[in-house]
Amino acid sequence: MRPLLAKAKPTSGFAHVLHLLLLAILPVVIFVLVRNNFVQLAFSVVVLSKWRMFAVRPRFWAANVRANAVDIIVGLSIVLFIVHSGDTFLLQLMWTVLYGIWLIFIKPASSLLMISAQAFIGQLFGLMALYLAWAAGPLYGLTLLTGLICFLAARHFFDGFNEPYARLLSYVWGYFGASLAWLLGHWLLFYRIVAQPTLLLTTLGYGLAVLYYLDHSERLSKGLRRQFVFIMLAIVLVVLTFSDWGDKVV
Description:
The chain has helices at residues 13-35, 39-48, 61-83, 89-106, 112-134, 139-160, 166-184, 196-216, 222-241; strands at 190-191, 194-195. It is mostly helical.
């Protein structure tokens, strides 16, 4: 389901230019706030930038929050990435530019391919930020938030395809993500800045999403299905087999 206020966005003229200008300013504001150690304010700006979600009747709020959840996840994740970049100006600037690209080019797109990309980026960034910032947090918190991020990303993906079982499939993926986080959280391993649950959920999620996309567009053959399943299982097997199981960073 797309945001209920999507039709109200300007598509041409001065209003459109102003809209793009405001979108371009947002990453710059966040960059300046983080550089000046106003991190909490930067998080608040990301959330407050979505005020239009509540500019409708309260009965639409839940639907609007769900429709904008991936955008919020990406925004909050970018703030965390900038914070954890230390004082490396170029790295912080890179994340700022990526956020601008997300806001101006990726987020407004409505094709099935771009909706799929939005869901993939939302889950990847959300999980990376979660384990980067809260790896030492309580396991139940990691489990709950991992499941929530997976659910919201899956719901964004399936709603774009008007999948009749979108809610059920999203709950299944969210439950799987939470279960994997709970299991691997006892031996939480990192590959540089990417946690093992993030790597596995990204691999499996990407593979399953591609299979669904190809099947939806009637381009999925038996041979292609076998190839994707084999690749996914091979990557998972390699990761699990060659991991040094223990409470350490790899």
